[in-house]
Structure formats: structure tokens, C-alpha cells
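Shipment paperwork, digital attachment
Item: protein structure file
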Amino acid sequence: MNSQFKSEVGNKKRNRRRKIMFVMAVVLLLVTSPGHSGVLAAVMEGANGAKVEQEYGNLISPVSVTDITYHPLQSLEWDEGITSGDPQSRLIMFKEGRLPAYPEELLQQWPDIEITLLPEVSMLKLTGYSLDRLLDAEAALTAAFASDIEEVGEDPKITISDQATDPLQDAGIASKKTYNILNLNRPQFPSARRQEAADSVTGSSPLAAGAPLYQSWGWDIKEVTGDGQSLSMQSGNHNVVVAVIDSGIDASHPDLSGNVVNGGRSFVPGVNDTIDRLGHGTMIAGTIAANGQLLGVGPNLGISAYKVFDEGEADSSWVVEAIIQAVRDKVDVINLSLGTYKSLIKREDQAILIAYERALAYAYLHGVVVVASSGTDGLDISNPFQLAENLGWGKNLAVHAPGGLPGVITVSATNREHERAFYSNYGLRNMIAAPAGDYGSTWFTKGELNLLSMCLTTYPTNLPQSYLSQLVGLPAGYEFMIGTSLAAPKVSAAAALLIAEGREKGKPMSPEDVKQILFRSATDYGVTGPDTDFGVGVVNVYEALKNTMSK
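Attachment content:
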């Protein structure tokens, strides 16, 4: 083990050059069109080839990352004396098609180590409580399959970036008296007034008649759907399914229960259900397919929960496993409202980056559209050099993943004034935007919170209501939120509706077909043409469906 690592240290220069060329080659191969700006294109836009080589020669400082933790997929009989702390995991990425069939034969001397194989991405995961024993087992596998292994690294954490439903918590404000709430008494439509409200709705789908909260608060869905016009053109069906890889879904929610097509699956070790204990996944699901007091972009689409969060963090390998399983289950669209930052050159980050890239390629080759949020740190993610510097990583190359990687449709967020939301990551010209709200134009200057600038979406009925939803008098199961997490599912639903429309017309659509129609139909905000704030523009389901129907 030690001699092997010493040998690697002695060959750092050669290995670094090989790694950067490998990562860039993978990125280039996954870019589906010469006009798209992936990670490689972003690097080349920021500096010419000579500058890249010059900068890369100085990129030797290690990057600190979150401590890795892991919970075993099944109960193991751990050795006495090594069961303190959290379990941990290591990833071994084999060259494609070179994953050993029976590696456990080599690991019989480590009965406390669990092996997980994911053939679709040639990934082997080792799980245990003792890092020393994990590294010993890793060294044994590395020695036995040296010529077959691509990279070895940790299994880093990935997080939900937009979980807070209360802006007080989000902004770190201690007292509820330090800001004014505007539009607190926004009119709503109780059951007795639904028909009266329905009579006042013009040019909209009949679905809106029974959706009073949509009528009052659903500005973001209306913007995407052409004020509800697309709902009459195509609202989806259960033969088209969006996988919500998140914290689960409240399948008993009255606005969602009719569209949850199966029980889903949990990838959180020790958690066998898909109950949403955080609320985030239910918010995403409602944005896609709410059909009740609220409406989603596709109110009749099928949704399915692939649970990777039970608390605030997940192991990245769970997300990779969920992507592969969703493709196996023949879903049509995968929504990833989650993300992290990884180094393109730090050795420990290469294994998970390769795993993501292969999982995304696997989905693409099997006809599944993958949509991911851009992140909520207000950073330019187009230039890996600059992103690393803004993250405080010094001389490095950083990328946001999975949103920002080739193979996904990356989504940034806009506000009600058709501006880029202050929190939204940005920079990629080949991304698309969607409305996801903010706190209003006078939040930062006067401390005024405008509820009409936020987004209302579904929330687990059994979780406590936020301060804001109680003030407005909302029933349990509805909350205000902002964030790129709510932008991505609007695009996921739009993609699913195009797939549904194509199938009804006998014209199946590939992921590239869907992407190109969405991009061509987007509403162009900002400067004319693709730009760094909005990418190609804001998703427009109404225009996209019209383009599909005209073919």
C-alpha cells in the first residue's frame, strides 16, 4: 500500500497530465453538438491552450472536501473495536467493461467490508467502519486489477441547496419583526367560490377551475405554460414518468397522490421507504405534476420517488445508483435538484466525476432526458479556473456537478421581474432558465418580503408549517420557496410533455430532440441570443408544444 502510493507521488507530473487529458477527453466525447459549451469549452473560452498548460502546471494544492460518511446497504457483522463513528466508503472506477465479476473472493480476509457493484458505470464501492481496513482492501484490489482500474477516490457528500422554506432562516435573520411582509392578504378561493373563480379564468385549461391556489399564487407555472394555455394542449399521462431523485415524495398529498405511479425506491441505507421527511422532494414533485389546489407544469404526468436524502446530505454514489436504477425502470425524464462542486484535477474527486459522467451517458444512450439545477451560490460556473478561485480553492479547476456537466440540461433561475435570480449560478450559454422566484425587489434595500415574488408549491402534509404559510392562512401541505431546485423541475416537466406529445403523434423523441425543441422555443430575455445570465432563455412549454405539433 505505502510503496504503491510512494510510486504515485514520484510520478505526479505524468499522472496529473494524464488525468486532465482524460477528463477533458470524456467531456469532449459527451458534448453532443459542436455549438454547445460544456466544461472543456468553458476552459478554452477562459484561456487559450498555452494558458491552460501554464496554469495547470501550478495546480498542485490539495482541496479540502467534506468528510466522507456512509451507511451500509445491508447489515454486516462488524469486527469488535472498529464500530465507532460513521461508516465510510471508497470508490474504485474500472475501465469500461473491465469490472471484475467476483472481487469478493479477494476480500474474504475483510469480512467487515461490504462490496457494491454497479456494472453500468464499472464502479465498485467498498463500505466499512475502519478507513485503514478500507484502504488495505482497496490496495489489494488495486494490486490485483491494476491494468483494469481507471481511478480510485472517495465517495463525497452531495447536498440539497434550497431546503429552507422560511426566508428568515435562509437569510439568517433572527427576529421576525425585522422585515415587512407584502401581499399578506392575497385573495384566495375557498371551495364555495371555486365556480365564481373559474368563470373569471379566460384562455386557460379547465384544470385551472379547480385549482384556487394556482389561480392566486401560481405565477411561475403560468409563466412557463403561457398562462395555462399549454395545459389544454398537453397535460401529460402516466405513460410518461419523471423520476424525482431527491428526499422522497408525500404520496398521500391530495395534489400528488393521483400521479405517483409506483412506490419508488430508497437508496439511503437503513431506510426502506420513500416518505419525504425533509419536504424538498415533495416541493419538486408538485412543481412537476401537482393536480389539485395547485397545478404543476404537467398536471397529469407520472412521477416516481428515488430517495437519496433522508437528512440534509447524501453520498454521491447513491445519486449515481438512483440514476442507473431510474433508467433501468424505463423512466422518461430524471430530475436532479441537487449539486456539489468537484475539482477536475484533485485525485480524490476523479472517481465520482467519472461515475457521474458515465451515469449521464448511460441515461442519454437509453433515451432518458436528465435535467439538473445549476446551484444557488450566485457563481459563474462556466470557467473552472474562476470558479475554483471564487470557491476559495486557489489554483485549481472546479466544476458544479451534476448540473454543469455535459449530458444534462442545466437550469438556472429567474425572478418575477425576468431577471436572473440573485442566488442562481450562471455562466453557461447552453443552459436554460426557468422562473423560481426571489424575495422581491425591495428585500435587500428595505427588508420588504413580497410573497408574490416567491413560488408556492406542495409540501408534506405531516410536516410543520412555516411561519409564512401560517401567516397567509394556507392549509397544511403548501409552502413558499425559492431556488434553482424549483427551476429544474419546470424544465423536467416541459421535457416530459414534449415526449408525451411526440408519442401521441407517433414521433418518439430522443434526449437531443427534446433539448433542441426546448432551446429553440425558449423566451429570450436579456441580450439577444444566448447569454451568461439566461443561457438560451426561459423555458416556454406553450411555444415548445406548438413547435412539436407543427411537425
